[in-house]
Amino acid sequence: MRRSIVRGVGGYLPSNCVTNADIAKSLDTTDEWIVERTGMKQRHVLADGQNTSDMAAEAAKIALANAGIDAASIDLIVVATVTPDNPFPATAARVQAKIGATNAFAFDVNAVCSGFIYALSVADQYLKTGMAKRALVIGADAMSKILDWNDRSTAVLFGDGAGALVLEGVDESHADYNRGIHSAHLFSDGGCYDLLYVDTTPACAKQPGHVRMQGREIFKFAIKLIGEAVETVLKSNNMTVNDIDWFVPHQANLRIIEGISVHFKIPMEKMVVTVDKHSNTSAATIPLALWEAARDGRIQKGQKVVLEAMGGGLTWASALVKW
Ligand code: ACO
Q1: Can you tell me the distance from the alpha carbon of 116 to that of 54, in angstroms, rounded to the nearest whole number?
Q2: Which end of the chain is more exposed for a tag (fewer CB within 10 A), N or C?
């Protein structure tokens, strides 16, 4: 069996940065409420005319440059998104054209905030079996396009962004074989659909629809389900918290991250936190956090990194990656 190793990482955030105070100018909210309940201080928002594929393509180009790999040698592109440019074609196909990955096949995955780990796991199957050799896995979302900007209970929580990994399948003879994706664990419960959803689609109502969320219920599920996902990934790899160098959680709320840290006795210094700067960018939070922590030298080659997420669906997931 081959293994999928990380060759490069990239990210992109739109230049327009919107602070809590900016939002409070048009919505009945305050910087204090948002910081106290979520830890969020700002988020990046796309300019008119920009789309998810624009962000995804920029993140992909940075990841390819980081890997020192040409776009033409990529044979698979998977984009995790809930905000595709169009219902079809897939955003991944648009990215393929934008970066010139002429030899790739490309498709999207929708698992909301768990989408990046789902996409990683999908790409991993192709690479492990040798059906693909080099893959781009991208998490990208333009949440600003599906927010109800009059609903203070959701509008303050999200941001736009994209992050990407370049993966390569290697066999046992390769020097880096011990690195890469060691396991991924995916879970869904469609019965909890109404806790977090978008209320219509262009296909049924000729308009994009808005995010609706029962925040308090989602919060409780997040602590429980992310806890289960973390337990599963540690157990499957016969590891404890002490064996892990970095935890890279989905960034939905600082209080959820702190709750997991307390429950598992994970020092906050081992948690990569970006929620204060990016807010919740849905499928993009984890690759953006990886990009940031790899860029600033925290995550080093060979270190063990646990990814974990929970989102609409409900979906939840975890993975162990040796960087
Ligand atoms: N500013 C000021 N007041 C607000 C705001 C706001 N932006 N939003 C809500 N309030 C008010 C409410 O109206 C309510 O007022 P009331 O007591 O007078 O009725 C009060 O604040 C408390 O509201 P709650 O919703 O109970 O606040 P809570 O402490 O639960 O925090 C939050 C809300 C931040 C949404 C939290 O529940 C949360 O983070 N939930 C989880 C979100 C999450 O994990 N999402 C992940 C998945 S996202 C995805 O998959 C796309």
Answers
A1: 17
A2: N
In the chain, % of residues over pLDDT 90 = 96
Give the rounded distance of the alpha carbon of 103 from its chain centre. Answer: 25
Q: How many CB atoms lie within 10 A of CB 241?
A: 15
- pLDDT tens digits, residue range 87-136? 999 999 999 999 999 999 999 999 999 999 999 999 999 999 999 999 99
Structural domains of the chain, with CATH: 2-171 (3.40.47.10), 180-322 (3.40.47.10)
- Atom in ligand 1 nearest the alpha carbon of residue 155: 7
Residue from 113, 182, 192, 210 carrying the catalytic annotation: 113
Q: Is 25 in the pocket of ligand 1 (CB under 6 A)?
A: no
Interval between CA 79 and ligand 1 midpoint (Å): 29
Provide the 10 A C-beta neighbour count for residue 251. Answer: 30
Closest approach atom of ligand 1 to CA 282:
51
Exposed / middle / buried, residue 284 (Cβ in 10 Å: 0-12, 13-18, 19+): buried
**What is the Cα gyration radius of the chain?**
18
CA distances from 83 to 86, 190, 204, 228, 280 (A): 8, 19, 16, 28, 14
Determine whether 250 is an active site residue. Answer: yes
Ligand 1 pocket, residue 252 CB under 6 Å? yes
Tell me how far the alpha carbon of residue 154 lies from the centroid of ligand 1, in angstroms.
7
Percent pLDDT > 70 in the chain is 98
Catalytic residue among 51, 250, 253, 278: 250
Pull the structure tokens for residue 42. 């700002």
Nearest to 231 by CA among 253, 189, 264: 264
C-alpha 116/C-alpha 82 separation (Å) is 11
Opening angle at CA 114, ends 232 and 143, nearest 5: 160
Å from CA of 153 to ligand 1 middle: 5
Place of tokens 């300019």: 47
Length of the chain: 323
